[in-house]
Design goal:
The chain is built from 16 helices and nine strands. Helix 2 runs antiparallel to helix 3, helix 5 crosses helix 6 and helix 9 runs antiparallel to helix 10. The N terminus is likely disordered. With about 525 residues, it is mainly alpha-helical. A hairpin with a 6-residue loop joins strand 8 and strand 9. Among the domains are: about 70 residues, no CATH class; about 90 residues, no CATH class. A three-stranded antiparallel sheet has the order 7-8-9, with no helix packed on it.
């Protein structure tokens, strides 16, 4: 695809046209800008005329005053839903049979009930009216989404368990089913709580004691975290991400030190233009104001970069018992790394401005463009910083921190697989071991983490766990579900990448599995 459109909601009434992957882009036609602003209120549209890695097309323009038409699933949607429902039902059927140790006559009853329920669900779905379906980039049968709370798959499996409990099981089996279902749910939620703590840890560099305290806070409110979809930006373009602010208002974060609190403020507070990832420019501002925007942005980004370095230094001070001289050495190195990063950003941004200035005479009307902010993750690969870490003999501790986060990721991915596969407890233990073995050693963020972070993580076991291991671990119904999940990702062998298709709106975006 050579052209990608991208919509997102902003907290201010402003329309920006910016490049998500390319350095800049332009849209003119003031009447169109005015009309889109009227329709969406707070909306952002990005149009990239270059050829970056594909970006998902999020949302369709609709006149919110027009009556909504009935929108039933397409034939392709119905088939996808039917296939997913059939495989899910078979996995639930197998799980109940083993968990409750069903007799032969009960197994026959369950098989008949499963067939009836799958047929009824297919008929219901074919008539389902969902006017917002085409506004979602990913379809309902997408891995992970299909079995999340309140999704079609989750509702079906819940109803299936209810029917089994009412029509097939004896009292002892009812108790077994309740205990096993409760244990399964708690395993998943506990994994998601650890994962949410890991997401904080990834930015704040928590100690083991801080991680445990935060986990206990989340556990004390069992309904607070039931899914893994949390983000500091809270963008629900593909997966239904929620903002961390919903957690921060419910739990105490008094275990954080001052450096961590400063870093958390950077992550949770928007900058003046409402976009944490970009500095924005308007043609109406003029070249002098553009230069001022760059100057102010550089000051802000320098402070953010230093805050990111400070939490890393604090983590090493507590974990490695650094001497005052070693701490001072790391602090000096962080300033050097920051100076280099900001200088490189200013140079890159100035190149973008020069390009836009050269085009101003050719463009009529007002336009806007953007430059991406510095990624603080670059600090962990900055040679000045890495040399300093090695000089104070703290490189092993940095590796231990990554390993702890990797374990939390593996737990969450196993829980996501369990939602789909309905594994027994002993299967989960083996699946966790296999999953952790294939996750990347370095936790470098993907450009698409804000949109489909967990889908990308799920792709690692789906595409890297050896086939013989799967056959040893999973039942035939579970293997059928696994194949559906794996087949969702389109493999581009030529480029050695995987593609996530935007089912409802066409197009896809690509990513590579890291080592």
């Amino acid at each position: 695809m050579s052209l990608f459109f991208f919509f997102c909601i902003l907290p201010r009434i402003v329309l920006w046209v910016c490049a998500l992957a390319a350095p800049a882009s332009i849209m003119q036609d003031e009447k169109l800008i005015s009309e889109i602003g009227r329709v969406f209120g707070d909306a952002l549209r990005e149009l990239s005329g270059q050829n970056p890695a594909p970006v998902p097309m999020i949302g369709l323009m609709r006149d919110i005053g027009a009556p909504q038409q009935k929108l039933t699933p397409t034939e392709a949607d119905q088939k996808s839903h039917a296939d997913r429902t059939q495989a899910l039902a078979a996995a639930v059927q197998s799980w109940v049979t083993q968990t409750c140790q069903l007799a032969q006559n009960q197994q026959a009853q369950l098989a008949e009930l499963t067939t009836e329920m799958v047929k009824a669900e297919s008929e219901r779905y074919a008539k389902a009216d969902d006017p917002t379906r085409q506004n979602r980039s990913l379809g309902e049968a997408t891995p992970i989404l299909f079995v999340q709370p309140d999704s079609v798959g989750e509702k079906f499996s819940t109803q299936m368990l209810h029917e089994i409990d009412e029509k097939i099981l004896n009292n002892a089996q009812k108790s077994q089913l309740h205990i096993a279902d409760t244990e399964r749910t708690e395993f998943q939620r506990s994994a998601f709580r650890k994962y949410v703590v890991m997401l904080f840890d990834q930015e704040l560099f928590l100690t083991a004691e801080q991680r445990q305290k935060m986990f206990e806070e989340l556990t004390a409110s069992p309904e607070l975290v039931t899914v893994p979809f949390y983000s500091f930006t809270g963008q629900a373009y593909c997966l239904p991400y929620q903002s961390f602010s919903q957690i921060q208002t419910k739990i105490k974060l008094d275990c954080l030190d001052l450096q961590q609190q400063d870093r958390l403020k950077d992550l949770t507070s928007n900058n003046p233009n409402g976009n944490q990832n970009y500095v924005m420019f308007q043609s109406s501002e003029g070249v002098e104001q553009w230069a001022e925007n760059v100057r102010l942005a550089a000051i802000m980004q320098r402070q953010i970069y230093l805050h990111a370095a400070a939490v890393r230094i604090g983590h090493l001070e507590r974990s490695a018992k650094l001497t005052p001289e070693q701490s001072a050495y790391l602090s000096l190195a962080s300033k050097g790394a920051t100076t280099v990063a900001v200088a490189e950003w200013r140079e890159s941004t100035q190149q973008t401005i020069d390009q836009m200035q050269a085009q101003m005479g050719q463009n009529q009307g007002n336009f806007a463009f953007s430059s991406q902010h510095i990624s603080v993750d670059g600090l962990d690969s900055n040679e000045i910083w890495l040399d300093a870490i090695r000089a104070v003999n703290a490189d092993q501790l940095a590796g231990d921190h990554r390993s702890a986060m990797r374990g939390a990721q593996a737990n969450a991915v196993t829980a996501l697989l369990d939602q789909e596969l309905w594994m027994l407890p002993e299967q989960r233990a083996s699946a966790l071991e296999l999953t952790e073995a294939v996750l990347p050693l370095n936790l470098l963020k993907s450009p698409y983490d804000d949109y489909a972070r967990e889908l990308i993580l799920l792709a690692y076991p789906l595409h890297r766990v050896p086939e013989p291991k799967l056959k040893e671990l999973l039942t035939e119904p579970q293997q059928a579900v696994w194949k559906q999940l794996k087949d969702f990702f389109r493999a581009n062998q030529a480029n050695q990448v995987l593609e996530i298709p935007m089912t409802n709106q066409g197009g896809s975006f690509q990513f590579q599995l890291a080592e």
